[in-house]
Write a structure and sequence with these properties.
Elements lengths: L2 H15 L7 H5 L14 E5 L1 E2 L5 E5 L5 E14 L2 E10 L2 E6 L13 E3 L2 E3 L3 E5 L39
């Protein structure tokens, strides 16, 4: 079993049985595991991030009407399915954050987007593995408050990696 498949199996176990799972007791009764795209090595990237000269702070809206404070850290571009796309990385006191919405939103992926926590590398580079892209907890249960992906991170390209849309 690959490292990614082991990670996914552990996540499914957590979602299905752990008291801190985002699933309700009712959802856990019939839970058969999350749905994922097949592992995609082409979407496991080391990227050069162009840091913004001024780390502008702003309030990112949340799914429950609140806000969370972030800094616009920098942006990077990469190629997917023959298209060059660009995403912005944000930073908070919890670390780096990469929310994004792809062209599959609403049909194969969660409409409000998926999340990643990119790993910083030396020299202004980051390791970004879209195979680890996950749905925010509000995708499973509206009691959770989740940041809403800013417009600048809404892609017209498909990211066929990571977690798919949750179906009960």
């Amino acid at each position: 079993m690959s490292e990614l498949n082991m990670f996914r199996a552990e996540k499914d176990e957590f979602f299905g049985s752990h008291p801190q799972s985002p699933l309700t007791r009712e959802q856990k009764k019939n839970f058969q595991g999350l749905k994922y795209f097949p592992e995609n090595d082409a979407l496991r990237l080391e990227v050069q991030v162009s840091e913004f000269p001024v780390k502008e702070e702003f309030d990112m809206q949340t799914s429950t009407g609140g806000v969370q404070r972030y800094q616009r850290f920098g942006k990077f571009s990469f190629s997917v399915e023959g298209q060059t796309v660009e995403l912005t990385i944000y930073r908070s006191e919890h670390g780096f954050f990469l929310p994004f919405v792809d062209s599959l939103a609403g049909s194969e992926t969660y409409p409000a987007g998926r999340y990643l926590e990119p790993d910083p590398l030396p020299g202004g580079r980051f390791f970004i593995d879209f195979n680890l892209a996950y749905n925010p907890y509000c995708a499973y249960n509206e009691m959770w408050s989740c940041p809403i992906t800013p417009a600048e991170n809404r892609l017209k390209a498909a990211i066929r990696a990571g977690e798919k849309l949750f179906h009960e």
